[in-house]
Design a protein that fits this description.
The complex is a heterodimer of chains A (247) and B (295). Chain A is α/β, with parallel strands linked by helices and 247 residues long. Chain A has one domain: 3-Layer(aba) Sandwich (Rossmann fold). Chain A is 36% helix and 26% strand. Chain A has eight helices and ten strands. In chain A, the strands form two sheets. Chain A has a six-stranded mixed beta sheet, with helices on both faces. A four-stranded antiparallel beta sheet of chain A has the order 2-1-4-5, covered by helices on one side. In chain A, strand 7, helix 6 and strand 8 form a beta-alpha-beta unit. The termini of chain A are far apart. The mean pLDDT of chain A is 86. Helix content of chain B is 75%, strand content 0%. Chain B is built from eleven helices and no strands. Chain B has a domain of 201 residues: MetI-like (MetI-like fold). The C terminus of chain B is likely disordered. Chain B has 295 residues and is an all-alpha fold. Classes of the chains: A alpha/beta (247), B mainly alpha (295). At the A-B interface, helix 2, strand 6 and helix 3 of A face helix 7, helix 8 and helix 11 of B.
């Protein structure tokens, strides 16, 4: 469904007239099938989040193509209703001037603009992610981190897009809440046939939810491996990383 | 924009709105409200004290001070408001474009702003008056030319700060159009910033215009203007201080009302700042319910 072909990305270093560039992504290629959960693992600064921004079409790759069902992901019409996202920083993931209802309505309105129909759907969605319907009139600063992340998930599934990109979506939550959100994601995946692209530095979380993981190192794909074969990874870097977790 | 009703729970805000709207209305309907002709000279009534016919007394030419004050709203407030709207409009458009799209267009627009800002404001205004001649419209033109870049700078910073937020990223990922994102997300969030800067600019423009009129470079006699009234009353500052106090106090009251109003607006629009009052109300209900339970 999503085909990433030889993607390169670099950012300009220094001022306006500087020609020096920093290569962030080198020759990245992989495919994502509908309904699967692909984990993207790597250390901080290895280009995970940059890749995430490219996959959402917010930025354009320098070279290479990203096709979503055969269309360039940079085009708005190609993305509409096909990809959605949940982010790391829950303090800024909902507009502070929006109530929960308005935030969820934004993505519902992308599908149909019938207000009444959408408003009735908000309660259903909130229940679906384990929130009380009374939350709908609250502002984000009145909710806890876990609750906001649940609202973000509700907002992401409201678009009914088959693929949701989770960029470090659980990293800013504390242990027990992380687990609750992971379980929610797993449940949604099984019930609603959702697919995720799960960007994280947490191998355990990835092992819990993903079907395949892609290990990244300094802007390159180190290895792509099915989760059941995670124990016998080939590349030395991936081995070392796993070793460190097990110890 | 559903939050405007919160504004009217604040008494000071309500008072400020009342002062501002009644001043604007008095300015617009000056010919019907003013008791006398503001330019009619009565030499026999020079420096007369307050009377029923002339509620605030008469000035050095025997003109009605109250009527002059009311007619003075037009250049001092209404025209300044128009000027503010024009320069704020230009500044907002440029600020949003460069803050949201960033990159080359931002660099280009900001260098233009830098050039505009590198001229010292007062000197530039004096230069424009020197070239185009003395008069209200030339000062206002100078204000527009000098202020837009300043607005653009401030609004750009505010927009830039919010345009990196993750809710903007989310909307972009969904494929929402840029202008819709700006209108739905960034305009409400940056509105308090815009309101506060424009109110302080409004106050300073009123004071500056009064200053230029005081120097004799703005509105020309016999037309009424607050700064010029101050200037005319200067000679009799100690013998007849009320002639100076009338325009002085009016200016202070109006400028303060504008400042209080925008402060209240900022609080009313921001759900985070508002929640304290809301919680207090909630607590009251809760306690009442408790009492009820005991009875």
């Amino acid at each position: 469904m999503l085909v990433v072909d030889r993607v390169n990305m670099s950012y300009r270093k220094g001022g306006m007239f500087s020609r020096e560039k920093q290569q962030v992504l080198k020759n990245i290629s992989f495919q994502y099938e509908q309904g699967e959960c692909l984990g993207i693992i790597g250390e901080s600064g290895c280009g995970k989040s940059t890749l995430g921004r490219l996959l959402m079409g917010i930025e354009k790759p320098e070279r290479g193509t990203i096709l979503l069902k055969g269309e360039d992901i940079g085009r708005k019409s190609a993305r509409k209703g096909r990809i959605s996202a949940v982010f790391q920083d829950y303090t800024s993931s909902i507009n502070p001037y929006f109530t929960v209802e308005q935030a969820v309505m934004e993505s519902l309105n992308m599908k149909t603009s019938s207000r009444k129909f959408n408003q009735s759907k908000v309660d259903h969605l909130l229940q679906h992610v384990g929130l009380e319907p009374s939350c709908r009139y609250k502002y984000p600063h009145e909710l806890s981190g876990g609750q906001i992340q649940r609202v973000c998930i509700a907002r992401a599934i409201a678009t009914e897009s088959p693929c949701i990109l989770l960029d470090e979506a659980i990293s800013s939550l504390d242990g027990s809440v992380q687990m609750q959100v992971l379980q929610l994601l797993k449940k949604l995946k099984e019930n609603d046939k959702l697919g995720y692209i799960f960007i994280t530095h947490d191998i355990k979380a990835a092992a819990f939810i993903c079907d395949r993981v892609m290990i990244m190192r300094s802007g390159q794909v180190e290895e792509i491996v099915n989760i059941e074969h995670l124990n016998n990874v080939q590349s030395p870097y991936a081995r070392k990383m796993l070793q460190m977790i097990i110890n | 924009m559903k939050r405007f009703h919160y504004l009217f729970k604040d008494r000071l805000a309500l008072l400020s709105v009342f002062i501002i709207t009644s001043t604007l209305a008095a300015g617009v309907f000056a010919p019907w409200i003013a008791p006398n002709d503001p330019e009619e000279v009565h030499m026999e009534l020079r420096f007369a004290s307050a009377s029923w016919e002339y509620l605030l007394g008469n000035d050095h030419l025997g003109r009605c001070v109250l009527s002059r004050l009311i007619y003075g709203i037009r250049p001092s407030v209404l025209w300044v408001l128009v000027t503010l709207a024009i320069s704020l409009g230009i500044g907002t458009i440029i600020g949003f474009i460069s803050g949201y799209f960033k990159g080359k267009i931002d660099a280009l627009l900001m260098r233009v702003c830098d050039i505009a800002l590198s001229f010292p404001g007062y000197v530039m205004t004096l230069a424009i008056i020197g070239v185009l001649g003395v008069g209200l419209e030339n000062i206002l033109l100078a204000f527009v030319l000098m202020k837009w870049a300043w607005f653009a700078r401030i609004i750009r910073t505010s927009v830039m700060q919010y345009s990196n937020a993750e809710y903007i990223k989310f909307s972009k990922a969904l494929g929402v159009g840029s202008f819709r994102i700006m209108w739905k997300h960034i305009v409400p969030v940056s509105l308090p910033d815009i309101a506060v800067t424009s109110s302080s600019a409004f106050s300073s423009m009123i004071l500056q215009l009064s200053g230029f009129s005081f120097l004799g470079l703005g509105v020309q006699a016999p037309q009424a203007e607050w700064g010029m009234m101050l200037n005319e009353a200067r000679q009799v500052m100690f013998s007849r201080p009320e002639l100076m106090l009338a325009p002085g106090i009016t200016t202070i009251i109006f400028v303060s009302a504008v400042n209080f109003f925008t402060d209240a607006l900022q609080v009313a629009l921001d759900p985070k700042l508002m929640s304290v009052t809301k919680k207090k109300q909630g607590k009251g209900i809760y306690q009442a319910a408790n009492l009820h339970g005991k009875a």
